[in-house]
Design a protein that fits this description.
The protein contains twelve helices and 18 strands. The chain has helices at about 5-10, 10-20, 25-65, 70-100, 140-145, 150-160, 165-185, 200-205, 230-235, 295-310, 355-360, 385-395, and strands at about 120-125, 150, 165, 190, 200, 220, 225, 240-245, 250-260, 280-290, 315-320, 330-340, 345-355, 365, 375, 380-385, 405, 420.
C-alpha cells in the first residue's frame, strides 16, 4: 500500500515511479479522491458538532417552555446531512483504497528500466558452466530413466504439472531442504519456523497477493487459501504488531509446500518439474529497520548464493528491471542456476526488498528508541532455495554418461552417505 502523505508531498515523484512501472500518472486522481474524502470528513464533523449543540438548545427550550420546532427541524436536517456525508466518505474511502491497493510498489532508483526479462542487468557470474564429454540430458529424462521421477502417476492422481518422486530422489528432496535449513539457521542467523499452509484472506492481502492475483491461487470451499510461498505466513508474523527497535532485524526461514494455480506462459515448460502447481521451497523472510533494508537485501541474496556455492552449482545474479519485477517489490535480485540439459540459466531464487509496502497493508510497525510514536518496518523475502529447481540443477550438473547422478559432497551426510544415484543403487 502506498503512503498518501508521500503522494501529497511529492506527486511528481509518485507519478514518475508509476511511469517506470509502465502505468499512467495517477497522483491527480488520487489527490482529488483524497481531497473530496477529507472534505466529507470535515463536513461530517462540523455537522456532528452542530447537531450536538442544537440538541442541547432543544432541551433547554423545552425546559423553559419556549417553541423548539425550528431547532427540532434543524436537528432533523442535520441528521439527513450527516447520513449523506457518512455515505459519501465511506464510498470515497472505498474507491481510494481499491485504487491504491491495485498499484504496485514503486521501484528503487538504482534498478534498470525495461519491459521484461531481456532488460534485466547481470550483476555477477559464479562458477564455470559444467562441461561434459557426452550430450547432457534434461532432468526429466534423467529422473524417468532412473525410475524415480513419475509424471504419469502424478497425472493420474492430480493432472498435469505434478510429479511423484520415489526412492533416492524422494530422499534427495528431503536432503536438499534439510541442508538449506541447517545452513540458514546454523550459519546465517535465521530462525526456523513451521507455519500452516492454509491461511485466511487477510494474510494474502497483507503480502500483496490479494485482491489482484486471486486467479493465481488455490482457494478451499470454506474460504481458506493455500499459500503460494512461505513469504505469506512468515511476513504476516509481524502483522498488526509493534516491535521494539531492539528486536530488529527478525530473520525467519521455513520449508513448506507451495501451491500456485498459474504455471507460467501457456505451452512453456510443460515437461518436467520447472513449473508445478505444487512444489516445496525454503523461504527466507526479514523484518527490519528501514535504514537497514538495502543492506539486508544484499545479505539475503548472499545467503541464497551460498547454497549454490556449497553444492558446486554455477549460477549468475541479475537485478530485475522495472517491467519484470514483482508487484510488491521495490528491488529484486534473481539468482539463475546453469542447467546444462537446457543449455541456459534458469531462475532458482528471487530476493526482494519490499520497503514498507507490505508493512502498510499488514499494519506492521516498530517503536524507535526514545520515541512515543511508531513507524512501519521494512520487509524482505527470498527463496533459499526452491527445492525442486535445486534438484533439477543437481541432476543436470552432476549427471554421468551411464545415467547415474553423483551426489554433491555437501548432501552426502543427508543421504546416508550415498555417493551415487543409479538405477540399481539402494537408498541408504
Amino acid at each position: 500500500m502506498h503512503d498518501l502523505r508521500m503522494i501529497r508531498e511529492a506527486p511528481d515523484r509518485f507519478d514518475q515511479g508509476l511511469q517506470r512501472r509502465g502505468l499512467a500518472p495517477l497522483s491527480a486522481h488520487i489527490l482529488d479522491l483524497d481531497s473530496r474524502r477529507r472534505a466529507a470528513q470535515t463536513a461530517l464533523q462540523e455537522m456532528l458538532t452542530r447537531r450536538n449543540a442544537v440538541s442541547k438548545q432543544v432541551g433547554a427550550a423545552k425546559r423553559s417552555g419556549e417553541d423548539a420546532d425550528a431547532l427540532i427541524a434543524e436537528v432533523q436536517n442535520l441528521k439527513d446531512g450527516i447520513a449523506d456525508n457518512e455515505a459519501s466518505e465511506k464510498a470515497l474511502d472505498a474507491e481510494l483504497v481499491e485504487l491504491l491497493e491495485g498499484l504496485p510498489n514503486l521501484p528503487a532508483d538504482d534498478i534498470p528500466d525495461g519491459d521484461g526479462e531481456d532488460d534485466n542487468r547481470e550483476v555477477r557470474v559464479e562458477g564455470e558452466k559444467t562441461a561434459f564429454d557426452f550430450e547432457p540430458k534434461e532432468h526429466f529424462d534423467i529422473g524417468e530413466a532412473l525410475g524415480q521421477m513419475d509424471f504419469g502417476a502424478a497425472a493420474r492422481l492430480s493432472g498435469a504439472r505434478f510429479v511423484v518422486l520415489r526412492g533416492a530422489l524422494a530422499r534427495l528432496e528431503r536432503a536438499l531442504a534439510a541442508f538449506m535449513l541447517d545452513l540458514h539457521t546454523q550459519e546465517h542467523g535465521f530462525n526456523e519456523i513451521v507455519t500452516p499452509v492454509l491461511v485466511r484472506e487477510e494474510a494474502l492481502y497483507g503480502t500483496g497477493q490479494l485482491p489482484k492475483f486471486a486467479e493465481d491461487l488455490y482457494r478451499t470451499a470454506d474460504d481458506y487459501w493455500l499459500i503460494p510461498t512461505a513469504e505469506v505466513t512468515l511476513t504476516n508474523m509481524a502483522a498488526d504488531g509493534i516491535l521494539d527497535e531492539g528486536d530488529l532485524p527478525s530473520r525467519m526461514t521455513a520449508w513448506t509446500q507451495c501451491f500456485r494455480s498459474e504455471a507460467g506462459a501457456a505451452g512453456k515448460d510443460t515437461r518436467g518439474m520447472l513449473r508445478q502447481h505444487q512444489f516445496s521451497k525454503v523461504e527466507m523472510v526479514c523484518v527490519t529497520h528501514p535504514d537497514n533494508s538495502d543492506a539486508e537485501l544484499e545479505r539475503m541474496t548472499g545467503c541464497a548464493e551460498e547454497v549454490l556455492k556449497r553444492l558446486g552449482l554455477p549460477y549468475r545474479v541479475v537485478v530485475l528491471c522495472t517491467g519484470d519485477m514483482g508487484f510488491g517489490a521495490r528491488k529484486t535480485y534473481d539468482i539463475e542456476v546453469w542447467l546444462p540439459g537446457q543449455g541456459t540459466y534458469r531462475e532458482i531464487s528471487s530476493c526482494s526488498n519490499c520497503g514498507d509496502f507490505q508493512a502498510r497493508r499488514m499494519k506492521a510497525r516498530y517503536r524507535p528508541r526514545g520515541e512515543k510514536g511508531t513507524r512501519f518496518v521494512h520487509t524482505l523475502n527470498g527463496s533459499g532455495l526452491a527445492v525442486g529447481r535445486t534438484m533439477i540443477a543437481v541432476l543436470e550438473n552432476y549427471q554421468n554418461a551411464d545415467g547415474s547422478v553423483t551426489v554433491p559432497e555437501a548432501l552426502r551426510p543427508y543421504m546416508g552417505g550415498l555417493e551415487r544415484i543409479a538405477l540399481d543403487a539402494p537408498v541408504a
